[in-house]
Design goal:
alpha/beta; Rossmann fold; two-stranded antiparallel sheet; 10 helices; globular
């Protein structure tokens, strides 16, 4: 019955993409927010962003939705909308203050994730983007298990170039393979910094073991692209604005455009292959 409920609620979701990383602080939520904004730039597409980082929900801040409340209707919880075609759901909307700590054990976290999937009235959605916490634990197992009732196009894995990050990201890739979650590809975030004045490039996080490119070659995973450091990204997230709209010609923006296009192409191809099998 539970599987049937989830399937009924999510049957109108065309593509589902998980954003993962074994490491915290690599820019997962930033990437999820910008991916959602980038996909929603096409007004013919309906996009949903689900934040399942229960203990550190930063999506409401990044999307300019702090202080918003979730409303309940006869058809379930209503997402909070940034634009007409971009809806967001996060535990952050259920807290009385952004500074409130969520001190929950695994079963309660899992129950809320199930509620987000079963009780939110997502409606017709072209892309459901799921922002996850770091690691390979409760929340990750739950979301993969619950979404297996429908389908997942795959996971985008975010890393930074240094070995300390890559070490945990290899574990995440291993997790995906163990739970049979397709990997769309890897994004190397904070990949070099070009000084806006002198134009010299610095490696803030030196890729001592070859960075994401070498790791992807070794593990036979696609590298979707490298996003350079840009201070404007952090400023835009703090203000709850879309960096894609604020800096349309920056090198980071051009990299994001290319990555988003590759994710769209993968999802369309994946959908086409599924239809052929059916």
């Amino acid at each position: 019955a539970e599987v049937a409920e989830l399937r009924a609620r999510l049957r109108a979701v065309r593509h589902t993409v998980l954003v993962l990383s074994g490491k915290g602080g690599v820019g997962k939520s930033t990437f999820s927010a910008l991916l959602a904004h980038g996909l929603a730039a096409d007004e013919t597409k309906q996009v949903a962003l689900l934040d399942i980082d229960i203990c550190g929900p930063s999506i409401p801040k990044m999307m300019g939705l702090e202080g918003e409340q979730v409303h309940q209707s006869g058809s379930g919880w209503s997402p909070v909308y940034v634009e007409e075609n971009l809806g967001v759901m996060s535990v952050g909307f259920l807290l009385s203050s952004p500074d409130d700590a969520v001190i929950w054990r695994g079963p309660k976290k899992n129950g809320l994730i199930k509620q987000f999937l079963r009780d939110v009235d997502w409606g017709e959605v072209d892309y459901l983007i799921v922002d996850t916490p770091p690691g390979t634990s409760d929340e990750h197992l739950s979301i993969v298990q619950y979404l297996s009732a429908t389908h997942i196009d795959g996971a985008v894995i975010v890393t930074t170039p240094q070995e300390v990050s890559l070490q945990d990201v290899r574990k995440e890739i291993n997790f995906c393979r163990k739970v049979k979650l397709p990997i769309i590809g890897v994004v190397e975030n904070m990949s070099g910094f070009v000084c806006p004045k002198c134009k010299n490039e610095s490696q803030i996080f030196p890729p001592t073991t070859g960075g994401a490119e070498k790791m992807c070659q070794n593990l036979n995973v696609s590298l979707l692209g490298k996003v350079p450091l840009d201070p404007q990204i952090g400023k835009s997230c703090d203000r709850g604005q879309s960096f894609l709209a604020e800096a349309p010609e920056s090198p980071a923006m051009l990299s994001y455009r290319s990555i988003i296009q590759r994710i769209q192409e993968y999802c369309e191809q994946h959908h086409f292959q599924e239809e052929k099998i059916m």
